[in-house]
Amino acid sequence: VPDSESPIAPQQVGAYVVNYLAQLTQDFLGHDNVKSAVICVPAKFNAHQRRQTALAFTQAGIKVARIVEEPTAAALAYGLHRKEGVDYILVYDFGGGTLDVSLLHVSDGFVDVMGSDGDDLLGGADFDAAVAHFLMGDTVVNGSETPVNQGKKEVVTRVATLLRQLAKQQTSTQGLDLEQQLAHSCPALTEIPLCTTSSFHTIGEQLKIALSEANTHNDDNEEQNTPSTEDKSEEPKVHATCLGLDDAAVEELQAHLTLDSFCKHLQPVHLEMTATEYQLVVQPLLDRSALPVKRLLHDLDLTEHDIDEVVMVGGTSRA
Question: Where is this region: Disordered (predicted)?
Fold first, then answer.
């Protein structure tokens, strides 16, 4: 970004992003004839937001051929506007940070957005956080009196406490911050993350994706009548590992804490989650995601029986 110390308007930032995307497109196509684009915007964008989005493209040298609402674009992509017997389409767009639900009406090949609803505070990140809390032992499932991952939160606390102590005693080494110094002193961290709150959220996302892929694989086997190599009596289970400290290690390190001693005492902490546990953990979020759909149908005086097609888009819709 040129002269980055000066204030930059949002549409200018957008123009830089569009420039980058245009360059990727040109590299992929092998020519620089990309001069115009169709823009997709959220259905709830007002006129000002649409103008500013278009301005970002204009400043990037890309002509705006048309502005299409995202739900309409999704329906067009699936060709539902040409499908017989389709009058109402529900578009369920579940992304990483927000949920948008729109109802479309199809008439003579034209698609109109009848209404939209959603939850701006619900997305894939909330599912990652729910899994992270489960992994740290904050969540009780299956009617158990104790969390499945009991004791994992203490591991996170021990690591965080010693990291704070290291940060206080470590001076910058050749301009490296503590994270960089740890990466240099602890080669194992290039393969396995520390047991920290942030890494648990990252691991939560990885386990969520792994379970989704495992379920998809099982569904494909059932559809193709292909025997699975896994025992059918066992449900999918995914595993992850982080590096933590036990109480004995902390006692030793309290007496003599250095980067090298910290790294030396790190040991693997194993985490696991089953498909059933995941379903129980995220069920409140799934219930919450259904509310915008119910509100939208109620506002438009429709029922679920009036919906002819459902289009699910966004990464979280696959989770």
Answer: 213-237
Topology adopted by domain 1-77? Nucleotidyltransferase; domain 5 (3.30.420)
Q: What is the 3-state secondary structure (H, E, C) of 215-284?
A: HHHHHHHHHCCCCCCCCCCCCCEEEEEEEECCHHHHHHHHHCCCHHHHHHHCEEEEEEEEHHHHHHHHHH
Q: What is the pLDDT of residues 13-72, one digit of tens each?
A: 999 999 999 999 999 999 989 899 999 999 889 999 999 999 999 999 999 999 999 999
Is the Cβ–Cβ distance between 245 and 214 less than 8 Å?
no
- What mean pLDDT is reported for the chain? 88
Beta bridge partners of 270: 241
Q: Are 107 and 121 in contact (CB under 8 A)?
A: no
- Say yes or no: domain 85-319 is CATH 3.40.50.2300: no
- End-to-end Cα, the chain, rounded Å: 36
Residue 42 CB partners (closer than 8 Å, separation 6+): 69, 70, 100
The residue ranges of every structural domain in the chain are 1-77, 85-319
